[in-house]
Input
Amino acid sequence: ILPRVGLSTWRMIAPFIPMCRESWRKLVVAGRAPQPIRLTSSCSMYRNEDVLEWLADPIGYRAAAAEQQAA
Output
């Protein structure tokens, strides 16, 4: 179970995401999936609440404009 709050790496959310990592990355770049939070050059994490929101409506999800500019 993915907690409602907190941060998760790709490996933590991968079991819930119905696609491969590359397809997920393409959705992120297009703004149709949650934007990662870059902690270091080799560590990105996703807000669990954003991932759960995406899982509830993957077709209608759009990343917030402020998140797109920060990424």
